[in-house]
Amino acid sequence: RVLRGRPRDLSGRRIVVSAGGTREAIDPVRFIGNRSSGLQGYALARTAVARGAEVTLVAANVTLPDPAGATVVRVESTAELRDAVLAASGDADVVVMAAAVADFRPATRHDEKIKKSHGEPESIQLTKNPDILAELGRRRLQARAADPAGAGETAGAAVPAGAAAHPGRGTAGAAGAVAGEPSGRVASGGVPSGGVGSGGGSEAAQGRVARGPHPEVIVGFAAETHDVLANGRAKLVRKGCDLLVVNQVGEGKAFGTSDNAATVLVAGGEPVEVPLGPKEDLADAVWDLVAARLT
Ligand code: CTP
Ligand code: CA
Question: Is 92 helix (H, G, I), strand (E, B) or coil?
Fold first, then answer.
C-alpha cells in the first residue's frame, strides 16, 4: 500500500478522541473490563494530528505510547472518561467516541479486597453507566434549541459547555440518579465550569471562538454481531450522532489487530464502506467524512 499524503484539512480544529476500554472496580484489585486495545482510537488521534488538528486523546487503560502532538488524558472508569470527555468537548469542533465504554458497573465498590474465605461468592449487582455519546448528542440538541440560529457570538455559544451546563446539569442529575451516582460527582463532572470557563475566555482572546452549538460533528463507534446496518442506523439516530462507524464483530474479527473494516453510517446520507485495511486507513476515511461536515 502506498502511504498517501495527508491534507492539512483539520488544521485549527479541536478534536477529542476517546480510546481504549473503561474498567469498573469491583474491589481494590479487581475490575470489569473489556478487550479494547485502543489501537483504532490511537490511529484516529495520530492521523488527526497529521491532518493539522489540535487533539485531546482521552485514553482508558491503553498501554500504547502517547501519540506525538496530542494531549493525552488517562482515565480508568466510565465516570472518569465521562468527566474528561465532557470537559474537553466544551469547545471542541469534533468528538469521536472510539472507546469501548462499560455499559454496567458494580453497584457498590468494596473498599477491601473480597476474600474467598468469606464463604460462597455473592453475585455482583450491576447498575447502568451513563451513555456519554448520547449525552453529547442531547446537550447539542439542547444548545441548538436554545440558539436555533447558531449565531455563536453569545457567551453561551462561545462557551457551549456553559450553555449546555444548565440543561446538562438537569440531565446529568437525572442520569446520575438512575445510575445511583453521588450527585457531587455528577455535578463536578457534568459542569466543568472552572476549566472550560477559563479556557473559553482565553480562547475568545485568541479569536478562537467556537461557532454555534458544539461539537459540530459527533462520531460514534459500534460493534455489532448481527443486523449490522439496521442496528447501526437505529443507534445513530438514538444517540444523535452524525457518523457511526460500524464494525461487524465475531467470525474471527478480533480485537487488538491492526486492521479494521467498517461501514460508516452518515446522518442524512448514504453509508460509506471502508474495506479491510490498516486502522489508519479507516481513521482517514472517518476524517474525510468529518472534514466534509465541518463548516
Ligand atoms: N458509548 C458511550 N457511553 C456508554 C456506552 C457507549 O458513550 N455508556 C458510546 C461508545 O463509545 C460508542 C457508541 O456509544 O461510540 C456505541 O457503543 P455501543 O456499545 O455499540 O452502544 P450501546 O448503546 O452501549 O448499545 P449495545 O447494547 O449494543 O452495547
Ligand atoms: Ca455497549
Answer: coil
- Closest alpha carbon to 96 in 202, 187, 2, 218: 218
- Write out pLDDT tens, residues 123-134: 999 999 999 999
Residue ranges for the binding site? Answer: 103, 113, 130-133, 221, 235, 239
Q: Locate cell 460508516: which residue?
A: 264
Centre of ligand 2 to C-alpha 172, Å, is: 19
ipTM surpassing 0.85: yes
Atom of ligand 1 nearest to the CA of 103: 8
Residue whose CA lies nearest to ligand 1 atom number 17: 222
Ligand nearest to the CA of 36: 1
Is residue 72 within 8 Å of 180, Cβ to Cβ?
no
Contact criterion met (CB below 8 Å) for 217 and 94? yes
Name the nearest CA neighbour of 133 among 261, 16, 250, 42. Answer: 16
Q: What backbone phi and psi angles, to 5 degrees, belong to 137?
A: -65, -40
Residue whose CA is at the smallest distance from ligand 1 atom 19: 222
Does an H or E element contain 144, and which?
Answer: helix 132-146
Name the 3-class secondary structure at 159.
coil
pLDDT in tens, 70-96: 999 999 999 999 999 999 999 999 999
Best of 81, 131, 138, 236 for a ligand 1 pocket test (most atoms within 8 Å of beta carbon): 131
Q: Whose CA is nearest to atom 16 of ligand 1?
A: 222
Question: How far is Cα 288 from Cα 94, in angstroms, rounded to an integer?
Answer: 13
Q: 219 in ligand 1 pocket by Cβ < 6 Å?
A: no
